[in-house]
Amino acid sequence: MSVRERVAEHRRRMRQQGLRPLQVWVPxxxxxEFADEARRQASVxxxxxxxxxxxxxxxxxxxxxx
Length: 66
Description:
Elements: H1 3-16, H2 32-51, H3 54-61
């Protein structure tokens, strides 16, 4: 049985089980651009408590979960 036939058979069985193929594209975490953007976002988050009162607002409207 060729690779093409095996793949077709596998897909047929999966469809019989009610499944369908799905392709998902995700960021390439190995790229320099990803690392640069991750660093940038981490810096923004780290500096957030020094430049914004957002967390104070969230805490002021939050209920205690005792």
